[in-house]
Amino acid sequence: MDGDSRVAEGPVEVLQRWFGHKAFRGRQEEVVRHVVAGGDAVVLFPTGAGKSMCYQVPALCREGTGIVVSPLIALMRDQVEALKQAGVAAAALNSTLSAADAYEVRRDYLSGKLKLLYVTPERLVSEPFLDFLTRGHIALIAIDEAHCVSQWGHDFRPEYMQLSLLADRFPGVPRMALTATADPQTREDLRRRLRLEDAPVFATSFDRPNIRYAIVPKQNPRRQLLDFLSRHEGDSGIIYCLSRKKVEDIAEYLNAHGVRALPYHAGMDRAVRDANQDAFLREEGLALVATIAFGMGVDSPSVRYVAHLDLPGSVEAYYQETGRAGRDGLPSDAWMTYGMADVVQRGRMIDEGEAPAEVKRVERAKLSALLGICETAGCRRQAILAHFGESHPGGCGACDTCLEPVETWDGTEAAQKALSAIYRTGERYGAGYVIEVLRGVESEKIVRNGHHQIKTFGVGSDLDEKVWQSVIRQLAAHGAIVVDHDAYGALTLGETARAILKGERRVQMRKDRVFKAERISQKAT
Ligand code: ADP
Ligand code: ZN
């Protein structure tokens, strides 16, 4: 023993003395006590709930070094910096370290001086490194962002798969998996792959009661955004866009319209980007227009709104991104505008990606789960929580559909018309074309294809274009329409199309609020 007094401290003392927190939150203390006693654990807390304390405190209570597996060097660096500031002996071993620094870290590990050591998964599982670790004393192994091991997670990393070997390699060392992604498939998958089937699961509710959800159909997104922002004068918030170009355009647009905005994306000059991030963290009343490059590890408590001008790829991503609002517990808004073009674009990104077919299938399923939430006529919060395997009675009173209940209409006939138009034009055209056929537009292309002579031509002239867009989006959310991205977003018939066409299945549709209500009630019913 080198007289390290920390070993003798209890969890609460460690929390107070080293981290300056008065008391544990939520289920932190349960986890900490369980791990200090030598148990394995699966920790599923939403972002911001305080997962780090769950392994940092036990690492200081137990003898030896806590090994933390983390996927991103930037995240590691932030954590290590914060720990060092608090006076905790912590280090990260990664490729950016000089040989001399790496030597020092290794020495401190072997001597037992180091309390926390952060490593990437690929380094941890390398043979020489595993050998090295066995020569010292490990207090615990914490696998952060553990959803990365699952193809169901939104951030699959093949390197995580090999972490299963830790169970055999370090028997008797407490192992923990921590993540903010907890849909039932991912949860089971990660327990199995990390050999934590027998470990207790510590989960807390994913509900963020102070966040108000709203998802609106895309009409004129810039105007809609300005309109939304007019309710947030003087507030700070994040506006997510998919592309770098759009980030810059929107930031410029907002500045021109009296909203102070700064862009942030990975393609920007590092110094400018960092300056913009700092300004956002420091100043008030600033809109940060960003790609998802912004957010990881940034924890600004007073974000009053998160706006999405493009559709995220999954419910998990949507939840993570919107979750950056209202960390201080005050009322905040999560607002999104989306349209069929977003669905097509997202689908194309999946199809054009490098992932194997199996992963693409999962990605498509994830996208359609999000569509289901966009198109629900029920409580959004209930739908989001249901996705994470949590039941909520609905009627939350803080989502657009609860605040202003959506009317529904029997869209069976409209659905049949749309599906039939898709079928009769050979399942080869996108939404715009199909809608023109339905509405009887004699465009040059339609006439050239002879589609002005088919039976469904013009059968949908009673509903306007916006209603048809809504019908098609909802059918896509129901799985009756599948977008074929290999064919430039052509609409094809999905699994449930047949039953709808044969009249075996009726379809309730939500009436989008932006339509003049009477337009549908007069004509569609
Ligand atoms: P997560 O990893 O779950 O997203 P973090 O571990 O980064 O969350 O913690 C989020 C924030 O909550 C941090 O600023 C942290 O200091 C703070 N925090 C964690 N536990 C406590 C606690 N018991 N009391 C007060 N603040 C806490
Ligand atoms: Zn609700």
Automatic annotation (TrEMBL):
SUPFAM superfamilies: HRDC-like, P-loop containing nucleoside triphosphate hydrolases. One of its GO terms (cellular component) is bacterial nucleoid. Its EC number is 5.6.2.4. Residues 221-368 form the Helicase C-terminal domain. Keywords: ATP-binding, DNA damage, DNA recombination, DNA repair, DNA-binding, Helicase, Hydrolase, Isomerase, Metal-binding, Nucleotide-binding, Zinc. Belongs to the helicase family. RecQ subfamily. The keyword DNA-binding applies. The gene is recQ. This is DNA helicase RecQ. It is an enzyme of class 5 (isomerase). It catalyses: Couples ATP hydrolysis with the unwinding of duplex DNA by translocating in the 3'-5' direction. Residues 32-200 form the Helicase ATP-binding domain. Its cofactor is Zn(2+); Mg(2+). GO terms for biological process: DNA recombination; DNA repair; DNA replication; SOS response. CDD domains: DEXHc_RecQ.
